[in-house]
């Protein structure tokens, strides 16, 4: 029982430190108030100089060099959690199309298989692109379940064919989702990650076209990476 408590305490400590760092960074660099601004500043919009490659303006000299650059960019995306961020943006964009807990076209096409590389034949077809798709499908499914579980008290009452009325202005705090007669712990749908679930639910319930990139902070991406791998 002690191990989960210690893990939770350390996670909260790490998230708190990250929040402090991002606020301090935003004070000195206004363009870095959100995750994408920081990533663009570091990666320079795709320039691979940060990982030892040549700039994009230079012409590659061979297929080997092209492959090396592509591999380097994938490594940079993993280190900076860019894939995690992009999956979060894709989920929010897709969820806003319905805002009633029902899957949209993209979510219906997800095909995550936990036994993706269970056989030797499948391992031979194991490519970075397939792994990326596999991870993305899992992340999207995980976020979909997270938001629907967190907001279950409201979205379960919505007709399948309609969006939740005035979803963008509703109180999505945990206390706001509980009947007034209940204690905060009496009907808890979700344990852990409540702050993250609340933030992502608020973003997912905004009208289509509302800002996304400027609202995703570094700690959101870190919490997603942490939460989906628990």
Describe this structure in words.
The chain has 230 residues and is mainly alpha-helical. The chain has three domains: 1-31; 34-80, no CATH class; 82-230, no CATH class. Helix content is 54%, strand content 0%. It is built from ten helices and no strands. The protein has helices at residues 2-28, 35-43, 63-79, 82-95, 105-108, 120-124, 128-150, 152-155, 194-204, 218-228. Helix 1 (2-28) packs antiparallel against helix 10 (218-228) and helix 4 (82-95) crosses helix 7. The protein is globular. The model is unreliable at 48-57 (pLDDT under 50).
**C-alpha Rg (nearest Å):** 20 Å
Extended strand count: 0
Find the structural class using helix and strand composition: mainly alpha
Instruction: Calculate the terminal CA-CA distance, rounded to whole Å.
Output: 16 Å
Low-confidence spans: 48-57
Question: Biggest sheet: strands, sense, closure?
Answer: none
Number of helices: 10
Order of helices and strands: HHHHHHHHHH
What is the domain tally?
3
Estimate the mean pLDDT confidence. Answer: 77
Based on Cα principal axes, name the global outline: globular
Question: Which strand-content bin applies to the residues?
Answer: under 5%
Determine the fraction of residues in helical runs and give it as a percent range. 40-55%
